[in-house]
Amino acid sequence: MQTLEPAEQQARPTNIIPFIPEGDFYYTKGIEAYRNGKLDKAMKWLEKAIEKEPTEVIYHCQKSVIFTELGSFHKAIYILDDIIKEHGDSYAECFYMLAYNYSKLGYMHEAEKFANLYLEMDPEGDFHQQAEELLTYVEAEEEDDELWTTEEEDELIMFQESAFYYLEREEWQFALPILEEMMSMFPEHMLAKHEYARALFYTGNQKEAIRMEEEHLESEHVSVYTHVNLAVFYHDMRCYDQRDEHLRLLRNIFPIHEEQHLRIACAFSMTGYYDDAVDRFLHLDKRRVKGHASYYKWFSLAAKKAGNGEYAEKLWQEGSRRFNHLNKDDFYWLS
C-alpha cells in the first residue's frame, strides 16, 4: 500500500532554545522506521506525534496504514471511520484505504462502496489505479456474501481477529471454542469451518478433521482451504498418495487473494516440497502477508531446505522481531 509522505517541516528559529520536539519530528522518525520495515518502532513514534498534535490528520492516517500492514484491519477501519466522521470527504484517500481494509476482511460490498466513493471524489488520485483493480477483483469474486448488519459485521471481525491470534501461534486449544462459536453464529462463514478442522486435527481429532474436509469435497463448498488442509493432514498421517493428489491440484491454483496464496505456499513447505514453496512465497506481495507469523516460519524453513540458509536466517530474524512467539534463538529448528 502506498505510504503517506511526511508533512513539511515547520521553520525553526535560529536562536538557541531548549529543544522540544513537535509532532512533525516524531512523525518523520515514524516514517523512517516504517520504510525500514520496523513497524513496532514506527507505531511508537507515531503515537508520540499524535500525543503532541492530536488533530493532525496525516498522523492518524499513517497509523491506520501501519495497522493494515500488521493485519489489524479492524483497527485501521476504526481510525479511518473517525477521520471521515470528523472531516467528511476532505481526505479522499481515506475512502480508498477503507475499501482496501474491508476487502482484506472479506466484506466485498463495503469494499466496493468505498472504492467507488473514492473514484467519484478523486478519479485521478494517487490510488485510482489500485481502486479500479480492487473493483475488478470484487466483480470477479464468486462468493455469496451475507448481507450482515453493522453489528454482525463488528462481531464477526472480533471473532476473526481472536481466532487469528491463536491460530497463528498454533495455540489450537484456545482457537477451538472461538471457532465453534463463530460457526454457530455465522454458519455461512466457510473459512471458520476450515480453520476449525485444522484446530481439531492438531488437538488430536484427526479422523473428524479429515471427515469434515472430505465432506466439503463432495459439496459445492470445496475451496483452496479444503485442498490445503487435506494435503497437510495426509502428509502428517503419512498417507502420501492422498497428499500428492491435493498438492497436484494446488499446483494449478493461483488465487487472487493473497491469504489463500500464502496458505498454498505454507502447505508446500509443510509437506516438504521446498522449491515449490519458495517459488510461491517469492510471488507473494510481502506487504500484504507480513502480518502473518506463518509467512516467516514456513518461508524460513523452505528457504533453508532449498539451500539458501543466509536468506532463511534473515527471514527468521525479521519474523522474530515482529512476533514474540517466533523466538530468535530457535532458528536451529530449521536444520
The CATH topology of the largest domain is given as Serine Threonine Protein Phosphatase 5, Tetratricopeptide repeat
The CATH class label of the largest domain is Mainly Alpha
Largest sheet: none
Q: How large, in whole angstroms, is the Cα Rg?
A: 22 Å
The mean pLDDT is 85
TPR repeats: 23-56
Keywords: Repeat, TPR repeat
Protein name: Tetratricopeptide repeat-containing protein
InterPro entries: TPR-like_helical_dom_sf, TPR_2, TPR_rpt
Could you explain how this protein is built, in words?
With about 325 residues, the chain is an all-alpha fold. The chain folds into three domains: about 25-140, Alpha Horseshoe (Serine Threonine Protein Phosphatase 5, Tetratricopeptide repeat); about 150-255, Alpha Horseshoe (Serine Threonine Protein Phosphatase 5, Tetratricopeptide repeat), CATH 1.25.40.10; about 275-335, no CATH class. The protein has helices at about 25-35, 40-50, 55-70, 75-85, 95-105, 110-120, 130-140, 150-170, 170-185, 190-200, 205-215, 225-235, 240-250, 260-270, 275-280, 285-290, 295-305, 310-320. Helix 14 (about 260-270) crosses helix 17 and helix 15 (about 275-280) crosses helix 17 (about 295-305). The longest helix is centred in the middle third of the chain and has 19 residues, at about 150-170. The radius of gyration is 22 Å and the shape is globular. Mean pLDDT is about 85; it is low at about 5-15 and about 140-150. It comes from Terribacillus halophilus. This is Tetratricopeptide repeat-containing protein. InterPro entries: TPR-like_helical_dom_sf, TPR_2, TPR_rpt. Pfam families: TPR_2 (PF07719), TPR_8 (PF13181). Keywords: Repeat, TPR repeat.
